Amino acid sequence: MSFQQGLSGLNATSKSLDVIGNNIANANTYGAKFSRAEFSDMYATALNGAGVNNVGIGVNLAAVSQQFTQGNISTTGNAMDLAINGAGFFQVTDGVSPTQYTRNGQFKVDRDGYIVNNDKLKLMGYPADALGNIQPGLAQPLQLPTSGIAPNKTTKMEMEFNLDSRAAVTAPAASVTPQIDFTDSKTYNNATSVTVYDSKGQDVALTYYYQKSGDNTWNVYVTANGQPVNGTAAAPTPWQTLTFSTDGKTLTSPSPATALNLTLNGPLTKTDPKTGAVTTTIVTPLSTTVSLAGATQYGSTFGVTNLTQDGYAPGQLTSITIDADGVLLARYSNGQSKPAGQLELANFRNPQGLQPLGGNVWASTHASGEAVLGTPSQGNMGVLQSGALEESNIDLTGELVNMITAQRIYQANAQTIKTQDQVMQTLVNMR
Fold this sequence. Notes:
By secondary structure, this protein is mainly β. The chain is 13% helix and 35% strand. Strands 5, 6, 9, 10, 23, 24, 25, 26 and 29 form a nine-stranded antiparallel beta sheet that branches. Strands 12, 13, 14, 15, 16 and 17 form a six-stranded antiparallel beta sheet that branches.
């Protein structure tokens, strides 16, 4: 026996306690991965070859390996908190150093609209163009839009409704002027309204009036902000006359009914309902293509099943949501939304070869291999969960048990040194 075995045991166990202590310290660190001290025995090299009677000379700390198993995912309710359920790392950068990697998804938006972590490292991914189209390619720091969304003029409208075939004819004789009074519901059968928008995003209230004029035949009048679209205020005329098949399933006229033109000509204004003063002048002409292909005439009550149009007013950014595929969706005050970018994740053939840098980030090394890039849910990449964080994968109870075990091993190694000292003392005292 020599002092070397005991001393190496003390050194190795001391380092093991350091590893265990670091694990315990980071038990509540989001995205942290526990480390494991790995040991190897040591033998002296014999010049005459290996021998069956060789006695080991101690122990060596072979490696401190990180264990990248999945941690539990806890919900936070904060949309900018992100967790990866599965393989992959977030890519972050300071703009100077090489790209760094992390599993800690505690992000926020800085004053310039960049998504950053607590150390101001910027989250990387693919940007989106002005129309919301993701631009894949080289990942770059993700920056959220700080301006609002521009208005969009209404160009298309789709209407699906049923007109009651049992309804009475309300169209008066041809000699009667006007043919319809929009303030008198007795002169038409049904009405429905929709809001459309001009090129400035100013809203226009369109109202469609349906007036039965005969068997399977209906007149459709349209007003814009209360003003007739066709004819004059004193003598409005129908925008369209609809003729249905006898079974009421389809429109026989106009045909086809998929691209009917509705043009609003000027001057067209909005007025204050209290004072009657003009508040808005609508940009005209405003032309819209209307589809009535889904209209029917059955023996049931009037009802609208679909009424859509593609215009909208300007809007301001109200929130950002992130889906399981890492797409950042910007939501605006006008009810519109569009992609603002997409996260790109990185994975490694050997994650244990990553070099920890502190601050919950790692750097790639020759041992880890080059980063394999992809979006969440793609290939072997994990699924992204917004409003949640990945907890550390450190088993606190297990680490406390490991600490007690390491402490006993340390004491045992100290005892071997003490015993060796006693043996040496005995030899010294021999006469």
